[in-house]
Amino acid sequence: MIKTKKAILINIDEKFDESIKLANELFLNGSIFIYPTDTIYGFGGNPFNEIAIKKISEVKGKTNWRRYIFLISDIEMLKHYADINSEKYLDFLLSIWPNPVSMILKLNKKYQELLNSETGAFRIPNYRFCQKLISEIKMPLISTSVNRTGNEPLNHPSQIIQEFANEVDAIFYSDKKSFFEASTLIDLSKDEPVLVREGKIKFVEIMKKLN
Questions:
Q1: Are 144 and 60 in contact (CB under 8 A)?
Q2: Every domain of the chain and the residues it spans
Q3: What's the burial of 46, exposed, middle or buried (CB within 10 Å: 0-12/13-18/19+)?
Q4: Cβ 171 vs Cβ 160: under 8 Å
Q5: Which of 118, 100, 105, 107 is nearest to 187 (CA)?
Q6: What is the DSSP string of the chain?
Q7: What are phi and psi of 135, to 5 degrees?
Q8: Are 129 and 12 in contact (CB under 8 A)?
Q9: Quick check: 177 and 199 in contact, CB under 8 A?
């Protein structure tokens, strides 16, 4: 573990358990961190902590910015936050997750009010570090691309450290990570699925699971 001017730098391949413990503590304290996912690197934090949300917004350069994805552990966790009234959609989600596919769903009334939004984007990540961390915190984890507004996402540890080491509390990284494509993003909050962003898994292939 290396301590920079601000951020702790920790290799998850070498210190997996220590990484999970630290990320858990940072999450609960309202701190923010950068970490690898099953897609690109993401800023992480507690989506229900206004301080954490504000920090991520400031680092990205967007005021009151809330367009992040919730990484979750399983469908049971999803049901706590989102309303899924269609058994067809529920079976569909079970058939595609865990995978780099994010779904926009209608939040239940409680979380619409809490998050000041009708919808939220969710994904069960296909990545051990994320799965283990979410199972420890037992809450959704923010994931949003590591970049300034208008710039391309950064996905290599050296670039991320150079750019953000003084603005986040920790940077978790992996020497083994070699996939850097954003998730496919689909809006399931309406009557019919709508493609928002094409990722590694193509929309047409995903829709075969639904149909």
A1: yes
A2: 2-210
A3: buried
A4: yes
A5: 105
A6: -EE-SS-EEEETTTSHHHHHHHHHHHHHTT--EEE--SSS-EEE--TT-HHHHHHHHHHHT-TT----EEE-SSHHHHHHHB----HHHHHHHHHH-SSSEEEEEEBPHHHHHHHT-SEEEEE--S-HHHHHHHHHH-S-EEEEESS-TTSPPP-SHHHHHHHHTTTSSEEEE-SS-----PPEEEE-SSSS-EEEE--SS-HHHHHHHH-
A7: -65, -25
A8: yes
A9: no
CB 184 within 8 A of CB 102: yes
Token pair for 130: 């994320």
The C-alpha atoms of residue 47 and residue 154 are separated, in whole angstroms, by 22
Residue with tokens 């301590």: 3
122: pLDDT strictly greater than 80: yes
48-77 pLDDT, tens digit per residue, is 999 999 999 999 987 666 678 999 999 999
Cα–Cα distance between 166 and 157 in angstroms, integer?
14
Contact between 21 and 27 under an 8 Å Cβ cutoff? The reply is no
Q: Between β-strands 101-106 and 119-123, what pairing exists: parallel, antiparallel or unpaired?
A: antiparallel
φ, ψ (nearest 5 deg) of residue 49: -110, 110
Which two tokens mark 57?
């917004």
Distance in angstroms (rounded) separating the CA atoms of residues 2 and 18: 13
pLDDT at residue 115 in the model: 87
> What average pLDDT does range 154-179 have in this prediction?
94
> For the domain bounded by 2-210, which CATH number is listed?
3.90.870.10
